[in-house]
Write a structure and sequence with these properties.
- The structure is a single chain.
- By secondary structure, the protein is mainly beta.
- Helix content is about 10%, strand content about 40%.
- It contains 3 helices and 26 strands.
- The strands form 7 sheets. The chain has a 7-stranded antiparallel β-sheet with strand order 1-2-10-9-25-26-11, with no helix packed on it.
- The longest helix has 14 residues.
- It is globular and about 60 Å long.
Length: about 300
């Protein structure tokens, strides 16, 4: 689903869009009255409501012109993500109404900037740079008899300060693991979150800890009196030996510019649905590649840091 006012640009024959909150979510199901249809959908970090509309979508690039009619989209009238210049939402899941499905995309990638002063991007199609990029490492999308609407991946481990979390390897495979660009902070199953939080607090024991800023973020610090702060490195590991080392801004989130409130940027997943959700904060400064035909997701150093 995308809102009504988005614009697209073509760069080197590849479709690129900016100023969008990109999100993987479940399919929105409209309800209709007379000739008007409405939708309502919740996703990882917000919701959207509005009218269902159709339009002729035309995409022109160096390879020709792509036309899709009718192209179904949502004209959002109440979007909880209408902040910081966001003009709309773009569905990237494998649901029938997503941009990916409606335009039969086979490959796309995106990069969230590590700082708010930088510019990120999303690219549809595989460029020559993508083909030659040896720094992007791929992990397979997990398959099942009933295809998931999301991009399921297999997490095999986590480290902090170079040491493995003290949990059994089976803890990583007990629940589903997905990438979701629409979830802000990575959600970990309770057992993994407790282990990470404990190890992180131990590594950060010399810094002043403060009360939580929210129910979700419960490990926060006041760094104002320190000339230097050392944040322990955190890495995820995926099937195929793929390592994703997080940017420091993907480990901690600054709530106040004077550094009086800086928190561990992870949250615990719902105990009733303990899905491991790799969120967008942990992907800042990284390129994330989705090879739909090849059934794989790749991570690499981004050009938007």
């Amino acid at each position: 689903m995308i809102a009504c006012t988005n614009s697209f640009r073509n760069i080197n024959g590849i479709l690129v869009t900016r100023n969008l909150l990109i999100t993987v979510h479940a399919d929105f199901k409209p309800t209709c009255s007379s000739k008007t249809c409405f939708y309502g959908i919740s996703y990882g970090s917000g919701s959207s409501n509005g009218h269902v509309a159709t339009e002729k979508l035309t995409i022109m690039n160096g390879f020709g012109t792509f036309v899709k009619y009718p192209y179904i989209f949502g004209c959002g009238t109440n979007n909880s993500a209408d902040i910081d210049g966001v003009t709309g939402l773009m569905g990237l899941a494998r649901t029938p109404s997503s941009f990916i499905s409606q335009t039969s995309q086979k490959y796309f990638s995106y990069c969230y900037p590590s700082s708010y002063g930088s510019t990120g991007y999303i690219t549809f199609g595989k460029s020559d740079d993508d083909i030659k990029n040896k720094f992007v490492k791929f992990t397979p999308i997990t398959t099942s008899p009933k295809q998931s609407l999301f991009y399921d991946i297999m997490v095999t481990g986590m480290t902090i300060a170079g040491k493995k979390l003290p949990v059994a390897s089976s803890e990583y495979t007990k629940s589903e693991s997905i990438t979701d660009s629409g979830t802000t902070f990575t959600a970990l199953p309770p057992s993994l979150y407790v282990a990470l939080r404990s190890a992180f607090r131990k590594q950060m024991s010399k810094y002043k800890m403060i009360k939580p800023v929210s129910d979700e973020l419960d490990t926060c610090y006041d760094f104002r009196s320190y000339d230097k702060v050392v944040i322990p490195k955190i890495s995820f590991f995926f099937k195929g030996g793929v390592e994703l080392e997080l940017d420091v801004k993907g480990i901690m989130v600054v709530y106040k510019k004077d550094l009086s409130q800086v928190c561990l940027a992870f949250q615990t997943a719902d105990a009733d649905d303990p899905t491991f959700i790799l969120g967008n904060s942990q992907l800042r400064g990284k390129e994330v590649h989705h090879d739909i035909v090849g059934q794989r997701v790749g991570f690499g150093p981004g050009g938007c840091s």
